[in-house]
Design goal:
CATH topology: Carbamate kinase
Order of helices and strands: HEHEHEEHEEEHEEEHEEHHEHE
Helix content: 40-55%
CATH architecture: 3-Layer(aba) Sandwich
Number of helices: 9
Low-confidence stretches: none
Structural class: alpha/beta
Number of domains: 1
Strand content: 25-35%
Strand order of the largest sheet: 5-8-2-1-11-13-14-12
Distance between the termini: 44 Å
CATH superfamily: Acetylglutamate kinase-like
């Protein structure tokens, strides 16, 4: 009887959150171990289905970098990166589109549907969901000390999101699963960082939350302890003093962009924990780092 009562108490604890978030949009960037390990994949799919059934409107944006690297290497092509961005020529873009828009996207859709959801897979090219432009990055020359522009090839940054496509799906109860591929001004296919795509979609939809699944517990301070809540001002301090660097930097920048775009809260959570979404959303303490305005 005690165990049954405990379960009831857990459900009651989540009631205020369910009430507050009913009808709200949550944009979730799905990647890391949660996208690779079978038990975590199933836990994620169940979380998404549950969120949808209780009235939350999830929109999923997924990555797939390790899978792309694996396929490239099997085809005898070596992945190349500049400042964390994949250098993408035409052949690499074909591989990216095949892996993200095909293999990875359809696996996620199938998994959600197998647990009772109604997921629909799409890339940013479908219905011109994501319009983009070529992205150039700056790098300081070691010889001259002057900024030089580096052409990454078919790498893009989001210029606009067609919300009509997503609204049409959500009205019919479908869960959008989006691969981070956009369309350029000349109709060319562009590879875009999934964190930035998720932030742009969250901003355009004025989502309640942007949640990024990662392979770390959250943002760690200098003492290697997780920081549960950070403001924009604190984030900038952490960047300036080197607390936030490397792989965490684009994720934090995506969160800041989303907040500036009108998203209420953003979260960076550990996707290696089963049911991490439920633990972050429906408990007082949460499990990761939330970034607020």
């Amino acid at each position: 009887m005690k165990d049954i009562i405990t379960k009831a108490e857990i459900l009651i604890e989540s009631l205020p959150y369910i009430r507050n978030f009913y009808g709200k949009v949550f944009v979730i960037k799905y990647g890391g171990s949660a996208q690779v390990k079978e038990d975590l994949k199933n836990a994620f799919a169940k979380d998404i289905v549950l969120l949808n059934y209780i009235g939350i409107r999830p929109v999923i944006v997924h990555g797939g970098g390790p899978k792309i690297n694996s396929v490239m290497e099997k085809m005898g092509k070596k992945p190349e990166f500049v400042q964390g961005q994949r250098v993408t020529d035409k052949e690499t873009m074909d591989i990216v589109e095949m892996v993200l828009g095909g293999l990875v996207n359809k696996e996620i859709v199938s998994l959600i549907n197998s647990h009772g959801g109604k997921a629909v897979g799409m890339s940013g090219k479908d219905g011109e969901l994501i319009r983009a432009k070529r992205k150039l990055v700056k790098r300081i020359s070691s010889e001259t000390g002057v900024d030089t522009l580096i052409d990454l090839g078919l790498v893009g940054e989001v210029t606009s999101v067609n919300t009509h496509v997503l609204s049409s799906l959500e009205k019919e109860g479908f869960i959008p699963v989006i691969s981070p591929i956009g369309v350029g001004s000349k109709g060319e296919t562009l590879n875009i960082n999934a964190d930035y795509v998720a932030a742009s979609i969250a901003s355009t939809l004025k989502a309640e939350k942007l949640i990024l699944l990662t392979d770390v517990p959250g943002i760690m301070d200098k003492k290697n302890q997780i920081v549960s809540t950070l403001t924009k001002k604190q984030i900038k301090k952490f960047i300036n003093d080197g607390t936030i660097t490397e792989g965490m930097l684009p994720k934090v920048q995506a969160c800041l962009k989303a907040i500036e775009g009108g998203v209420s809260k953003t979260h960076i959570i550990d996707g290696r924990i089963p049911h991490c979404l439920l633990l972050e959303i429906f408990t007082k303490k949460g499990i990761g780092t939330e970034i607020v305005a």
